[in-house]
Amino acid sequence: MHTVLEAKHINKYFKKPVLFHVLKDINFTIKKGEFASIMGKSGCGKSTLLYILSTMDTDYEGELFLNNELITGQDRQHLSYLRNKHIGFVFQFHYLLSEFTVLENVMLPARKLAEKSAQEIEHDAMQKLKMLNIDHLAKKRALQVSGGEKQRIAIARALINNPSIIMGDEPTGNLDSYNAENVFNIFKQLSSEEGLSLLVVTHDEDFANKTDRIIQMGDGKIIT
Ligand SMILES: Nc1ncnc2c1ncn2[C@@H]1O[C@H](COP(=O)(O)OP(=O)(O)OP(=O)(O)O)[C@@H](O)[C@H]1O
């Protein structure tokens, strides 16, 4: 199966206040359609790793490949393009623009990529909203919808450019168990039916236990 994400010998040091070796020789691959979670105690380096994998942090040692392309060492502009095109993000807090409509929020990453007309983008955004059963919310402003709906809108937004991988940082951290299960089911369906890869940092054991693979971290290393 095609490899979507590969981390090879990733090491990261924070230099202040004192030199701190935060990530220690991290190696793993995520295949097409794989749904993996990252677990580990607070402070073990999960967010630091996700920040590197998402191409936001370029200050690390080792090599990172996205769809077999070496992304380590690429310039910021190209990284921004790759991130927008191939990676969808879902966070604990949805970061929707509250005064914009739901539809406008979902369209934003596609407008930034600027590879399609406004009409095509709107059509795609409606398709994503339909897929997530929230197309009836399209014209509402983001501040007018519930927490669970906001997270589904954030997922639609993450999907708008048809990414290869969704990266999540505690995507169910702010949801009740009903909505958390709903988000899990959406992710599961995206991986098994659409071949999307997912890599989700979570403290939620129930969520992690249902994913294809748990990457367990401890003290800056992958334990299993
Ligand atoms: N900018 C920074 N400078 C120095 N140390 C940092 C910096 N950011 C994080 N750290 C330290 O690096 C370690 C890993 O932090 P990180 O946020 O990656 O952990 P985490 O596993 O995501 O934790 P949590 O589950 O609490 O979110 C922690 O000890 C943290 O204090």
TrEMBL record:
Pfam families for this protein: ABC_tran
Chain segments annotated as transmembrane: none
GO molecular function: ATP binding
PROSITE patterns, sorted: ABC_TRANSPORTER_1, ABC_TRANSPORTER_2
Domain ABC transporter: 5-223
Species annotation: Kordia aestuariivivens
Entries under CDD domains matching the protein: ABC_MJ0796_LolCDE_FtsE
The keyword Transmembrane appears for this protein: no
Family of this protein: Belongs to the ABC transporter superfamily.
Keywords: ATP-binding, Nucleotide-binding, Translocase, Transport
The protein's name in its UniProt record: ABC transporter ATP-binding protein
